[in-house]
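Person: Show me a sequence?

Helper:
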Amino acid sequence: MTRLEMVQRDDDRLHLGTWRGDPTVALLTPVPGRLSHVDTVLAAVDLSRTRDGRRAAMTSALLPHEQEPFLAAGFTVRERLHLLRHDLTDVPDVGDIRLRRGWRRDYRTILDIDGQAFDTFWRFDRASLTDARSATPASRFRVADDGGVVGYAITGRASDTCYLQRLAVAPDAQRRGVGTALVVDALVWAGANRCTSALVNTQESNAGAYALYRRLGFTPEAGGLAVLEWRDPDPSP
């Protein structure tokens, strides 16, 4: 099986992939702008279970209305997230942190930083990093370089909305303006590309990231997001 494929039932579709590089856990992601049907979700779970031997599945971060068919298919909430929006007005100056384009040769350092910034459940591997960069029609991959990479951000654009998809700063470089510079760079890029808003999500437990986004002008969206989980109740093959 390829790492990412489309599961289709009638005129409904969703993506089936691998969760954070774990071959035992499937990742189900709705097609942007479409509401999956419960039958399609069940078909994807069944395909993953019977063909690939997977006994668990996770969803991408879903809005409340996107969660409904998954909950009806037996998924439960694994983790809730804050969802915040910026209207791209009153964007502060980026400061004097040196930012540059990210390259594949930076991946090793970036993944090390990511591993320090996130717990095991959220941690990126190389495939996750590549997927994040290709998740939207246009994207921006930036690193903060202070004699070496100390932070990075991936920002995507679809239609008139910008998505700050990933932000991580090395622990010993935090509270030096690195995160601020990377977020502001994303907002400036969004405005230059005629976006009308920018979205970001963060774990409810990540008080530091939430405070950073609020300070930079993001406001919380009602309902937030949730990652849902399915576990096979039948232990037999």
Q: What stands out?
A: The CA atoms of residues 94 and 185 lie 6 Å apart. The chain is about 30% helix and 35% strand.
